[in-house]
Write a structure and sequence with these properties.
245 residues, mainly alpha, 2 domains, 12 helices
Amino acid sequence: MTEDQWLTSADASAMLGFIRNRATSRKLRLFAVAIAKPFFFLMDDRRSFRALSTAERWADNECSANEVDLARRRAWDAIKDLPEEPFAKVIAARAAARVAESDAYSAALWTQNEIVELWATLKEGKSSDGAHESYWEGRKKGEADVANTLRHLLGNPFRRTFSGVPRSKSITRLAESIYQNGATSARRPRFSQQDVVGKKLGSLRDALFSTGYPDLAAHFTEDTSRSHPKGCWVLDIVLGREPNT
């Protein structure tokens, strides 16, 4: 894969294959969480959402492998108790269980397959006619969304050198607050909380720009009201959670 292909691709499977031996298990796991979390509203059974939140904690070594294994098995049990319709809820529950797979690459690959299918199913369900066309339109949008999320977490693997990474106390505190309490978390989000996080993202963007890190600041768009996936490459650099290599 070339740099241009990485920056424009809507094929997350190919992108995952390209970075398979370069991305950490943590980053792959958080990618799976990031693409599944927006569909929490379809997860009627708490066991599904528990698998999602437990997998996120595991990515940051905040729980044991046994806890994740238990959460995954319970998530699959939850699927057995779901009615067959609406099928979108079944897919969402499957995605939550996939996030907690023991192998991080498998979790990332299988979760993105489920999420793309979920996009297609939801789009198809909204169509009164032309369901076939709507299904494929939904898949196309889903593929683009998960690919963008992967870029959001991995950045550009072809340009990985950042010297003089910001380490001021104010920037670090702000970044840590966003990381720990942000709308990125696999907790059930509160709108008031997301508003606060949006303001903090804007503040972090401005702080990075004013202290001489425009490339890092550019990662944060003007629309900071949108959810910001946990594990984004800029926050990881600022907090020293993962090197940009």
